[in-house]
Structures are given as C-alpha cells and as structure tokens.
Amino acid sequence: MWKNFCSLLKKDFQIMVDGKFFLISLGSLILYTLFINFGYIRFVNDRLYNVYLYDPCGAFEQADKLIHPVESMEELNAALSTDTNGVGIDASLGVPEIILYVGKEKVDHHRADYALSLLQPGGKYTARITGTNTKELKQRKEMCCELLFIEIVAVGFLGIASVLFKEKQMGVIRVHGVLPLEMSLFLLSKMTIFLLSDLIFAALMAVLNIGPWVTAGILPAVLLQTAILSLLMALTGLGCAMLLNDFRQFSLAYLVIAFFVSVPVFFSANTSVKMAWIDWHPFYQIYMGLKNACFGTPVINPAYYIRCVCGIIFLFLIVQAAFRREMGKEG
Amino acid sequence: MIEVKDLTFSYGKDKQVLHGLNFTVGDGEIFGFLGPNGSGKSTTQKILTGILKGHGGCATLFGQDISRVHTQDFFQRIGVLFEFPYLYANLSAIDNLKYFSSFYPAKRLRDIGEILEKLEFKMDFSKKPVSSYSKGMRQRVSMARSLINNPELLFLDEPTSGLDPSGAVLFRRIIEEERKKGTTVFLTTHNMLDADLLCDRVAFITNGTIAALDTPKRLKEQNSSHLVLIEYLYQGIRKEKEIETANLEGGIPFPHDEIISIHSREPSLEDMFIQYTGRGLC
C-alpha cells in the first residue's frame, strides 16, 4: 500500500510541477511578502474614516493630527457631501455634535465613537495594553493570516481542481479503477501533496512576515489550523472537479464558493459589521481559529476540532462517491 | 473463466441497459462481444471489471461471484484496454508504463522495452510526452499497459481502433499470441473483421439483450444460402449466374465458353449481425 501511495504522490507531484503550481505558489509568496513588508506596514495608517472638525471657539486644540479642521459650516457640509464615509464634528457651541450620512446603525456608532476618540488623544480613551504584540507585529500577523487564508481558499482550491480536471480530461481516472489499488489512495495522495504544499507555504509566510522567533512560538497552532483549512478546501475542490463536467462550469462554481467562503468572513472579521448568522459559517470559525493561532491564543475547544474532523470525513465520503460515479460514467 | 446469468443493469431508475444477459467464456477462449454503440457492451465490461456496481443477476469470474472477486488480487490478474487510449499526456510512454506497472508485484511484470518493441512502437518517441504521439502510437502504449502485468484475463474494448491496417494485423497477431499462452480474452468491438478473424465465439448484443451466440463460422453457415456466383463468357458476352452449390456436383450446369470467376455467396458476420439484430453497426 505504501508503495502504491508513493507512486501516486510522485505522479501528482509531477503533474503539479508541469502545471506550474509550485511556481505560482512561490510567486504568491513573494508577492504577499513584498506587499506586507513594503506596502501594508509602511503605508497603512490608523485612519479609518476622515473626521472633519469645525471648532471656531478652539475648544479642542489638543485634537489628534488625523482630524481635518475646517473653517466654516459650509466647508464642513461640502466635505461631508463628497466624502460620505467621513464624520463631521460641529464644535461651534463648545460641545461636539456629530454629523454624518446615516448608514448601518452599528457602523454609525462606530464612526461616531472613532471621531470622538480623536478629539482627546492620549486621554481617557487609551486602553490598557495586554500581550506582547507591538502595533507593527499585530499588523503583520493580521495581514499574514488574511493572505494565508486567501491563498488556501482561492489559489490552492483552484490548483487542486485543475490537477484533477487534467486527469479527468485525459481519462486516466478510469484506468485507476482497474488497477490493484485502493481507490481512496488516489484521493489521499492529492490531499497529502496539497496539504504539504500549504503547510510549507504557511510556515514560510509566517517566517518571512512575522519573523522566525515569533513564528517558532505560534507555528504548531498555525500549521494545525492551516491543515484543517487545506484539507477542507482540497476536498471541496476535488468534489467540484469530480461533479462538474468542464472547467467552465467549475470556474462559475469557484467564483460562488470563493465568494461565499471569503467575503462574509472578511466582512465580519475585519469590519464593525457582524452578521447574526456568521457564527454558523464554518469558514468563519476556521478563519478565527487561524487568526487566534497567529496571535498566540489557539483554539482549545474540543468541539471545534470534532466538528472539523466530521466535516473532513463527510466531504471525503462525498468525494469518494463522486469518484466512483466518474469512473462508471456511461460511454 | 467468466459465467454470466441473467445480468441486468440500469443507469438510474428509468434507463435499463442490460436485460438479462447469459453467457460463459471458457479458459483460454477469445470471446467477442459485438454490438452497436449504446447496446450495453461497455456496461457489461465495466460490471465485470468492477467499475460499475449495482447489477442484477449473477456473474462469476475466476470461479468467484463478482461481488466478492474485485480484490487487489483480482486486478493483478486482469488487463483492461479501454476504447480510448487513456494515458498521462505530460508523461512519456516509458514513464506512463513505469507508473502503471508500479502498482503490480514485480513477479507479474513484463519488460517495458520488450513489450513496446513487440508492439512496433517507435522507440525514438519513448521518452517524448504522449501528447506528441499519433493515435496509433497512443493505442500501442495503451495496449502495452494492459499487457504489462501478464494478465490471465484480458478485456479489450475496440483494440484496433485508430490503427492503420498493418497495425490492426499486428494487434490481432499479439492477441492471438496471448491466447496461445493461455490468456482468456473478452473482446468488445463493433469491428466485424476483428471478431471474425480472432474470436472463438461471438455474442451479438443489441438493446441490452443477446440476440445470438455461437462461433463465427457456425453463425455464417447456419444462415448461408449455399449459393455461388459464376462469372463467365458465352458467345462473346460476359454474363453472371447464381446457382446452388449442390448443382455444381456434375460440373457447370449451363452452356459457357469460358469461366471468369466463381465466388461463394456465404454471408459475412456483419450480414448475420444485421439479420439477428435488425440493425447495422454504427
């Protein structure tokens, strides 16, 4: 069995090399690293929304530098009419009054609180700092986690499906049905090779962007979450490639799945908008698991891991059934 | 070697493709399974090779029921050539064969170079990727793959498809050689020439039922009109006449100056197929 598994691994590795999968992964790694080190860290500042202050009495002279002072109410209104995400503060009566275009209630509160916090920097709004993360390290960890999630969900998922589509088009899947080979090995070899590839990618991402010493402390937890995500996405990719007839159909399904997996997750995790149902989104849990692992607080709840293992087994059974169906196809 | 009783199969609830097939294939026999596209040939082969599950009736292979026979040991003993040459296009012929042979125990394996040579494969292509091969060359590599493990039972689906006439002759010779070594061959085809030249017995399958099963010779004889067509010259005019062979015992029974040719009018296997099934092979 081990010999058969090694043969399958070798063949899958060859297909991935020929399909330039590793080259694309390496390209992604370089691009993400350049972005984090020379883009995100350098140029992203704390400015969430533009805040415009009309303060003719000079009541808030200690306001944060991020605030844009305006000279008149007309100027304030003009600024808010062009920048609808911006927040205006009218302090003409000595008391700050918030002016903004109404959006979602929670977001509006967040915008108002943010604007008010800038009026008294270093004051009573300063939180007590816990943990050892510096501001830069926090940014690095956050972005590293997000890009790792995108890489596995979108790029890896597409990669595994394209490998299987190649084999499907060549018809060689059917030959495996008449070989002295345990059929599940055919799927396991693909999952293994993608898992290894994702784990190496995750480790390199962490080392290059978070730093080797910090990574050493969080790596086991990060790799565990990466492994869970990688297996789930690999099985989803394999299932789609088995069940869908051609790459065009797959591309459409890919867009839907990638959108479904990533958009609500990022929206809920990185903005003040939180959907009521997001806790039921399986990938939100995994994303948060990955993020917590990056920040050194790994998930320890056994129920989470039981759910993940059940999900992996469930998907594996579906893919195996689809695999048998593909081999027995008419014609 | 193979025994099939009342074999049925449906794709889904409504599409029954096999309606109770009955046949046996003896050890070392070349058994032809002939039928047009969609008649149930490939489905039968897929059931026998364990690719399709959920059949009705019963079938035994190597003396064991097929529901229990599809073990790794079984797959080591069979070879399957599919209708299309399914190969890894990015790998060379040698790499494909090395890969597929890696699943068999070493004691069963034939030498890759030797088998390719026997199939008259152009060896200068052996290290080039399969994507650069002609259809005939791919078919040769596929045939090599199905023979690589010295199979005791060989399933061949349209083996000469995509081959030029000399390639087809070569394949028929190789199949015959395999049989001489004791290999049983289950040949699925709609090529009547292959069936006629190779098979010990043939079954005509149409719409999932066997319409006739016998040796090609007997099938033709049973339906022969025993007529001969005589072409001759008489008083300077070229003429043709069809007469019963029994009437030839006393010589040519009509006046003639010169006999140009005499042809027997026995039916071909294709004629027989059309007669039994009521449809042509396409």
Automatic annotation (TrEMBL), chain A:
Transmembrane domains' residue ranges: 21-41, 147-165, 185-210, 222-244, 251-269, 304-323
- Highest taxon in the source lineage: Bacteria
Q: Does Membrane count among this protein's keywords? A: yes
Keywords of this entry:
Membrane, Transmembrane, Transmembrane helix
Instruction: State the protein's name.
Output: ABC transporter permease
Q: Which organism is it from?
A: Parablautia intestinalis
From TrEMBL, chain B:
Domain of life where this protein originates: Bacteria
**ABC transporter domain residues:** 2-232
- What keyword terms does UniProt attach to this protein? ATP-binding, Nucleotide-binding, Transport
Q: Which Pfam families did the record assign?
A: ABC_tran
| MF terms in GO | ATP binding; ATP hydrolysis activity
InterPro entries on file? AAA+_ATPase (IPR003593), ABC_transporter-like_ATP-bd (IPR003439), ABC_transporter-like_CS (IPR017871), ABC_transporter_ATP-binding (IPR050763), P-loop_NTPase (IPR027417)
CDD domains recorded for this chain? ABC_DR_subfamily_A
Q: What is this protein called?
A: ABC transporter ATP-binding protein
Question: What is the species listed in this Swiss-Prot or TrEMBL entry?
Answer: Parablautia intestinalis
Organism phylogeny = Bacteria, Bacillati, Bacillota, Clostridia, Lachnospirales
